[in-house]
Sequence to fold (416 residues):
Amino acid sequence: MNNSLNINSINIVDEAINHGIIDLARVQEEMEEMKKQEYLKMHPYKINLGKDGFWHTYLPLGNGKRKAVKRKYEEDIVKIVIDFWKQNNTTTFKKRYFEWVERQKLCGRSNNTISIYESDYIRFFKGDKIENMDIKDIDEAVISQFIQRLLSKQPIPYRTLQTMMGYIRGVFNKSVKDGIIKRYENPCDEVDLPLFKQYCKQTKYKPAEERTFSNTERKTLLDILTDNHLEKPNYIPSYAVELSLYTGMRVGELSGLKWEDIDTEHGIMVIRHSEKYDRKTNEHYVSLPKNGKIRQFPLSPEIEDVLTRVKKVELKNGWLSEFVFSNANGRVHARIISECMRRKTSGTGFTNTKCIHASRRTVNSEFARVGMPATVRASLLGNTEKVNEQYYTYDVSEMDYKKNIICEVNKETKAM
Fold:
């Protein structure tokens, strides 16, 4: 019944406009005038005509300071005041965005995450007219038009667009919490985001060969590392790279691994530390692994062998510290380990230069190939099961293996 009333009301308004009973242009002018009056009400200073024949007022600068401004005509000074409060209105999208960022800080987001929010504001919103729009005036159409302008200027992947839309949704959710807009007025719910997917930058497909190590590449890398250990036994990062091939640990977890995390009595390694880099303070620090997930990893003979060799080198050189991978400069940072992996895999014998994450994907994919359950693999890698299956599981079986199976199947088909 309410829907019928709403439809009838809309029809009546449409009829009134069509028959000239309601002057739509006049209504819009009056609404604009009301909006201007709202901004003028925000202005704490009087607008006066001075003895010099100019119109005078002040604009607040913050911290109790103000700036005097004057213009020859009243409409000019009024325009300055309105434009000022449009930009400094506490309910502009810009103001509300950074109110949302402040809330994220209170919720415990890291400095790195806050830095991303701040840099993404510049990337997506700065310079666009949506910045200074009142949050109450932003509807589904405004957001859709903004997305069109954004994609016309800088094609971005669809996942990035989804992230950007998440920021807008967060801004409106915060505005709901603060009572600025009503709960049912969140326009993000009305935006059909998949419609814009066709205008997004297409993500370059990378085959499994580029994302993982083949058996041949792993053997080649291990041979390189073995020679490296013999020629330069004091080069600690190469031991960390070798450990990554057996465990699939994140590079920060390798850098943050401590000797206290190695439990030889129970045959496990507890992965509970990870190096982080704070973009705001330009400092490295060690905290919990990603998502705060502490996990255990069995100590295989290969893992124990790497740890024994690296400890022997560090003891000999007086480098032994609380961290497993240390040298004359102290703990070996994640960046150094990553660079070591890239250098070792940049020559012949590799499809492409590999990163530490290639080890991570390969370890998980090999576990999958031999039948390890998805839940167990996700637990060992420190991922959610969904993320592990979507981003870390690849077909790493050799082509000869596939060929033999296909030949057997075809042979059975032919014999039928």
Notes: The chain is about 55% helix and 10% strand. The two ends are 67 Å apart (CA to CA). Residues 376 and 385 are 9 Å apart (CA to CA).
